[in-house]
Amino acid sequence: MDFLPFTRPNIDEATIAAVGEVLRSGWITTGPKSRQLEAELSAHVGGRPVRVVASATAALEMALQVAGVGPGDEVITCPLSWVATANVILKVGAKPVFVDADRASRNIDLDLAERAITPRTRAIIPVDLAGLPVDRDRLYDIAKRHRLRVIEDAAQSMGANWRGRRIGSFGDLVSFSFHANKNMTSGEGGCLVLNDEDEARLFEKLRLQGVTRHADGGMDVDVLGGKANMTDIAAAIGLGQLPRLEGFNARRRELAALYFRHFDRQLGCELPLEDMAQSNWHMFQPLLPLDRMSMDRGEFIARMKDLGIGVGVHYPAMHLFTLFREMGFQPGDFPVAEDIGRRTVTLPLFPTMADEDVERVCAAVSGVLKPVLSV
Ligand SMILES: *Cc1c(COP(=O)(O)O)cnc(C)c1O
Prior knowledge:
The chain has 375 residues and is of the alpha/beta class. The chain has two domains: 13-244, Type I PLP-dependent aspartate aminotransferase-like (Major domain) (Aspartate Aminotransferase, domain 2, 3-Layer(aba) Sandwich); 245-372, Alpha-Beta Complex (Aspartate Aminotransferase, domain 1). It is built from 13 helices and eleven strands. It has helices spanning 13-25, 32-44, 56-66, 84-91, 110-115, 136-145, 197-207, 232-241, 245-262, 297-306, 322-325, 335-343, 355-369; strands at residues 50-53, 74-77, 95-98, 121-125, 149-153, 161-162, 165-166, 173-177, 190-193, 211-213, 219-221. Strands 1-9-8-5-4-2-3 form a seven-stranded mixed sheet, sandwiched between helices. The protein is globular. It starts with 12 loop residues before the first helix and ends in a 6-residue tail after the last helix. It binds pyridoxal-5'-phosphate. Pyridoxal-5'-phosphate (PLP) binds at residues 55-57, 81-82, 84-85, 127, 153, 155-156, 177, 179, 190.
């Protein structure tokens, strides 16, 4: 049987042809395709300004700069995310203030977030883990009352919605990723949704060396920028993906529903929150019943691989990484995030999977776990 990876990008022939056209056109860096992608993304989020960049990590870092976050500032986030979420806080010289995850949603616990606010808190970075949106009503209520900026790390929640409103179409700064594994891709890439044209202009300068070009051919530099522009090669891929996003996400939702139907509840795994209305089902992640298993997670992943099934881990709680341990974070600081991070496994979920693939994965999980479970 073919190996079933935990995810796989879905690129059609029209997109491959469009990339070929860009390559033949003589203009392969940022140009008309990048501007077209920005216009189409803006339409996707109800007309708000959108700018594309080389990665969501770059978008998040520059979003912090647009929000005026720097040395001496504190930024609240959750340690259960891809490490980019906290790295960018360090990159701008600010201090990451972690708060634990909520067990049901596995997203940031907003009660704890509110309690972590100090006079130095400038911003909060919520993460929609696996594409399940953080409670936007409560989030923006807190932000408004404490005058905090919000930089939404929506890397995983492209096409998801909060109470029927598309993520990115409201709120403060919103960052999406087009990494190869995300629900839509440009190979590598990302974008930021901003509040107005002034913010968009500052963001444009930050992504390309701080340069403002003048009509007479001259230029000026008045802020320190970096190098994070998107190529038209990548933008052509993104343009081929965006019109298919809703279809991709609808299929992901169907596959997630099949997981809930076929997964053996007797195994003692904890399943994710069954949200069939708002999540874009970026990932399907049971938590293993490790304390009842005579096998660790690494062995489970290896046994699944022997059965031709790819299993990922997204993510270990990041405050336990050496970089953050050296800043004083310790085991036990965030018990929910640590428990989820220790037990989580990402099972295959991508739009071109067949219904039978889900049944095969569920059967394999049962086959691997049953013999090693104690009662
Ligand atoms: C993928 C991801 C990022 C980073 O996106 P890149 O485009 O790879 O830089 C940040 N945060 C989360 C939660 C992600 O999943």
